[in-house]
Amino acid sequence: MSLKRKILELQMKREKALQGGGEKAIEKQVAMGKMTARERIITLLDENSFHEYDLFVEHEARDFGMDGKILHGDGVITGTGTIYGAPVCIYAQDFTVAGGSLGLMHARKITKIMDHAMKMRVPIIGINDSGGARIQEGVNSLAGYGEIFYRNTMASGVIPQISVILGPCAGGAVYSPALTDFVFVVENISKMFITGPEVIKTVLGEEISMEDLGGARVHSEITGNAHFFAESEIECFDQIKKLITYIPWNNGQKARPFEPKEPLSNKYKIDEIVPGNPKEPYDVRDVIRAITDGSEFFEIMELWARNIVIGFGRMNGETIGFVANQPMYLAGVLDVDSSDKAARFIRYCDAFQIPIVTLVDLPGYLPGVDQEHAGVIRHGAKLLYAYSEANVPKMTVILRKAYGGGYIAMNSRHLNADFVFAWPGAEIAVMGPEGAANIIFRKEITEAKDPEKMRKQKVKEYKEKFANPYVAAAKGYVDSVIVPRETRKFLLHGIEVSKNKVDRKPIKKHGIPPF
Ligand code: HXC
Q1: Distance from C-alpha of 322 to C-alpha of 17, rounded to nearest angstrom
Q2: CATH architecture under which domain 10-246 falls
Q3: What are φ and ψ of residue 470, in 5° steps?
Q4: Closest residue to atom 45 of ligand 1, CA basis
Q5: What's this model's pTM, rounded to 2 decimal places?
Q6: Do domains 10-246 and 270-431+467-497 have the same CATH topology?
Q7: Distance CA 423, CA 196 (A)
């Protein structure tokens, strides 16, 4: 056969393989409002940057009628490409081919591209759209999943791992995304659950739709399994692209620097954002925007545990991880979910050399039977662990209230913060003045002629003595009491002088965090 004919033959083979599951299956996919797997990859990556591998991989299953079946690419597309010029490895399950189900060769394609990402030290992006373990392949599909989970764990903290849920993601399939760093979901398209509605009906007799059980909103607002919620696939891809600009390719590098920009100080007037009354709410994201380059803030997990805010911004062109109590929700208290949310993010920043800025304004940990029984001790301890363990530059600004365990947990000097600043309105105390006065002056108050007057007087006394930043500053627990408009200057300087920070941890195999 001449080379010309061989080239023609290759083209024909390619064309066939590129048809995926065929016209009908593609029509069904489109009717569900979904892009095809290849369209997804091409839309997400830089134009013409996608290079596909293993297009001709074939399954080896012989049981249950599989011997006669051709599954193009074995239901998954893998390759490499770039996003804003940054190299990435990627795979997308093709639901049009056997429901994107995961057989042995399908899994091998995924693990091969994951191994490649690890060798090349670049991010791995997985687009999930699959009916789960390929039932006909039995234990081989389970083996495939296990081999993916193992690699997810080995890659954790070495390269960024991004999961995109764009279809069903059932059974063990959800555990690969759960082991990765960021999970993206899209309204009406993403579904994640361990056991589906059918099993729940059979075992428990409860009826629930797939959407109500494990739709995008459920995982963004209730379970905290998803980090980014979008209303369309296009919006989701824009979010991924944006994320890629903030994170480094691997743990040996810093995120790419950007051109420094000043914040929009006319829009975000930092001296006027935080109300003087400690009970009055405000949006802490305005404080973040008042200090970041261009007032840009890329929030993560925006819809879950909203009493704490996490996300990326830039200062002097460098990516910074922000953790901030949000007085707009539950007065910014720490609870089971917010501790979990912040602790994981702190560990992400620490693993990928991203300095952390913490903004503090909280009344403490949330009291209540629900919280105690939900394990607030264990979950709250995650935050203490994560801050103590992190040795990237860590800076704190106490904006207003910093009471009790909340003061300690929010990157206090005592957990080895590098710099702690406080605004003049900061109140650093074991608890709020009202609660404190009621306890320590109970006798004087109850025995007074006018208990209410006495209570007010004692609250005032306590406030004057303790509810300010100067007691902590006198002990060196706060490095500087600063006016709000000095915050960016102090933080920028803190980042600058921390460039060569050395803070070695004791030699150990690994710690045992309160998972
Ligand atoms: C083999 C599968 C499959 C699977 C779907 N298909 N799931 N083939 N193994 N797991 C095939 C269907 O037979 C069908 O093939 C095609 O994919 C499209 O599926 P439909 O059912 O027609 O699509 P739809 O109506 O949209 O429903 C999608 C679905 C449903 C909700 C995902 O297919 C479904 O419930 N699948 C099974 C889900 C599941 O229980 N998976 C196993 C989980 S256990 P044809 O040829 O007709 O087009 C698991 C264990 C892993 O994953 C543990 C690891 C630790």
Answers
A1: 46
A2: Alpha-Beta Complex (3.90)
A3: -80, -25
A4: 98
A5: 0.95
A6: yes
A7: 51
99 lines ligand 1 (CB under 6 A): yes
Q: How far is the CA of 11 from the centre of ligand 1 (A)?
A: 31
Q: Which of 26, 66, 94, 101, when mutated, tests ligand 1's pocket best, judged by the most ligand atoms within 8 Å of its CB?
A: 101
Q: Which atom of ligand 1 is nearest to the CA of 175?
A: 55
Which CATH number is 270-431+467-497's, of 3.90.226.10, 3.40.190.10, 3.10.180.10, 3.50.50.60?
3.90.226.10
For 401-418, what is each residue's pLDDT tens digit?
Answer: 999 999 999 999 999 999
List the helix and strand counts (H, then E) for the chain.
Answer: 21, 16
Query: Which residue's CA is the closest to the ligand 1 atom numbered 44?
Result: 171
Domains of the chain: which residue ranges? 10-246, 270-431+467-497, 433-466
Both structure tokens of 416: 């080895």
Residues of the chain with pLDDT under 70: none
Q: List, for residues 418-458, the tens digit of each pLDDT value.
A: 999 999 999 998 888 888 888 888 998 989 899 899 899 98
